[in-house]
Amino acid sequence: MEFSCDIHGVPEGTIVFPHEPLIRVQGPLYQCQLIETMLLNTINFETLIATKAARICQAAQGEPVLEFGLRRAQGIDGSLSASRAAYIGGCAATSNVLAGKLFDIPVKGTHAHSWIMCFESELVAFEEYAQSMPNNCVFLVDTYDTLEGVKKAIEVGKHMRHCGHEMGGIRLDSGDLAYLSIEARKLLDAAGFPKAVIVASNDLDEHLIESLKAQGATISVWGVGTKLSTAYDQPALGGVYKLSAIREGKHDPWNYKVKLSEQMEKISTPGILQVRRVYINNQAHADIIYSEECPPDDVFDLVDIFDSTRRKHIEYDDIDDSIDLLLPIFEKGKCTFGSQCARYVRDQVAVGLTKFHSGIKRFANPHEYPVGLEKGLHEKKQKLIMELRGH
Amino acid sequence: MEFSCDIHGVPEGTIVFPHEPLIRVQGPLYQCQLIETMLLNTINFETLIATKAARICQAAQGEPVLEFGLRRAQGIDGSLSASRAAYIGGCAATSNVLAGKLFDIPVKGTHAHSWIMCFESELVAFEEYAQSMPNNCVFLVDTYDTLEGVKKAIEVGKHMRHCGHEMGGIRLDSGDLAYLSIEARKLLDAAGFPKAVIVASNDLDEHLIESLKAQGATISVWGVGTKLSTAYDQPALGGVYKLSAIREGKHDPWNYKVKLSEQMEKISTPGILQVRRVYINNQAHADIIYSEECPPDDVFDLVDIFDSTRRKHIEYDDIDDSIDLLLPIFEKGKCTFGSQCARYVRDQVAVGLTKFHSGIKRFANPHEYPVGLEKGLHEKKQKLIMELRGH
């Protein structure tokens, strides 16, 4: 007996679209069942964090976002997954040293408040830090009084310059980040440190970053931890693993299967599912979910999953390009895809995101990207549902 | 050089209280710094999930809560921590088989929707399941039509009884759980299955359970996954690790340390911190944070952390009992506490929770449990802050 299952999800973000197959698993019944939970655990969490990271990086408008989430993640492998997914979603670096080592992700961070508190004064603490890290020196200035801290950082920065080194910048971790960054920038510029960066952290997310930018904050590097590594405002991606077709033997025909529900969004889609993304004018135009037994050819007719009266007709001649999103990864028990480094996947995500219109990616009331069933598949699904409901 | 640090947090729940030390670490500087992130990662997450579980179990009013969160956790060790913490917080069992094995937690679950969809009909699927699991048979009835599913479960349940077995019950996983459970209960009772349990799941949390109970739902076992294992509505406990005292050598006096902030809740507490819980009339009355160098004796004067004009005076003679909450776990690099099984810790939590007035544990506008600094420590903290601020 052979199964075809898919994982599909409904996240808030901008990478995965409503009820779109994320992965397809085909194989003997027991094998497909055994890997269900592992796949859901991995795909749900990493997709969620990569999506959240992409949103945060979008708000940062190209300025580096550093992932600082280790202390709020779930255990070591939770944190490793989070760091890797955050990097893939667009973060520039992580404070998770092990993730940096394992996945070749740049590692960045500053000293802790306790570094300052170990010395008799903030000034001495900065001097000692500058001696230890002369070429990678970002001072955390808010242990006692932020703007006084900036002045001490400048004092040490001047001494460093005298010795042939350059202070990297300062980090703000509390208080009114808009006001403090503007004042700190003035102090740094006036003292001859226009290139010193201002790193900020403190429960940041895409909405706070957007707001700080709107207020004219002069922050140029964003440290984001808790809200990123837990995807704080939507901490789970509701991906599920559903049987979509079954057959007795490899040469038998597939029986399409559907799970009903009184909640429309919980009704599954039958078939040997694949997703085709079509591009018009070099922009992603729509995603079409179809069954591989009956691929769309020269005309694309989409039916909205939740409202079957919403339809979209796409002429083949209008399309610049189209790609099938699901690619074979394991075949006959062997990985055929080739391992890809996090950096490469990150670059692919970045290119992929540029293909979406900004209206789809905005945070407030985004335009809904069209995702629908290929018309023939929609009709098969309707027929199956009606049969099961005895109509 | 020796450090004393504490982790303290501000969660939403009812187990940990505002800014209370959760753990104290004392030792050489480098050692204390090396374990910081591991401790924060572990303590933050497990405390959060145990708290969430306690809230959910409270809503279930003694009915069993099953933890079903594996597919939404962060990786394998995230899920193991979540399952263990959920059990400690009061859950009756987990669907995480590995957690069950490692921590001796009861394992419970039902079959998947795909079990039903593999067979030619729901009835045949139930019959096959009953044959496989004659003594532990809970039927998931919502694959096609929930109440029709209940009728088929009853049909198979009658056949099981004829063969000397008893159906365990049914599980609802979608739709209007209040209505469906009431209707299912009627069908089960009328058919002679008054003892068959009704398990329900579907994005449940303490608020939904409370609401379902208020609506008269006849659910007696609660399956809770996503919202528990991610602590959905507050997915991170903001515990931090702060240096609170330092000394040169073991025989030198401690220098108390405080981290300032423009955000009052981010100012740390200095000292060799300990927390004493006092009981009056067999109920937890207040928690007093003090420095071990100067323990409270026969009078307890508490000062609120956030509002120093709010004070509480407790006469020694009024107190039934008092305990110090922080106990030594590692001493000189060796674990001296003894490993405790999850079951034992769970029992201790359950007893501990009964000591709190229900007003403190309610979900809407709970009474704020008094947590404060011992007056002498408050004064030392104020003096340090004033000095650092140059007043």
Explain what you see.
The structure is a homodimer of 391-residue chains. The first copy, chain A, is α/β, with parallel strands linked by helices and 391 residues long. Chain A has a domain at 2-49 and 235-388: nicotinate phosphoribosyltransferase (Alpha-Beta Barrel). Helix content of chain A is 36%, strand content 22%. Chain A is built from 13 helices and 18 strands. In chain A, the strands form 4 sheets. The first copy, chain A, has a 6-stranded parallel sheet. In chain A, helix 3 crosses helix 11 and helix 6 packs across helix 7. The longest helix of chain A has 24 residues, at 36-59. Chains A and B meet through helix 2, helix 3, helix 5 and strand 9 of A and helix 2, helix 3, helix 5 and strand 9 of B.
Determine the CATH topology of one domain in chain A: nicotinate phosphoribosyltransferase
Rg over CA atoms of chain A:
25 Å
Mean pLDDT of chain A: 92
Name of the CATH homologous superfamily of one domain in chain A: nicotinate phosphoribosyltransferase
Largest sheet of chain A: 6 strands, parallel
Number of strands of chain A: 18
Shape of chain A: elongated
Q: How much strand content do the residues of chain A show?
A: 15-25%
Q: Please tally the helical runs of chain A, counting DSSP H or I stretches of 4 or more residues.
A: 13
- Biggest sheet of chain A, strands in spatial order? 4-3-8-7-6-5
Oligomer: homodimer
The largest interface is: A-B, 60 and 60 residues
- Which structural class do you get from the secondary structure elements of chain A? alpha/beta
Going by CATH, the architecture of one domain in chain A would be: Alpha-Beta Barrel
Termini separation of chain A comes to 29 Å
Assign the CATH class of one domain in chain A. Alpha Beta
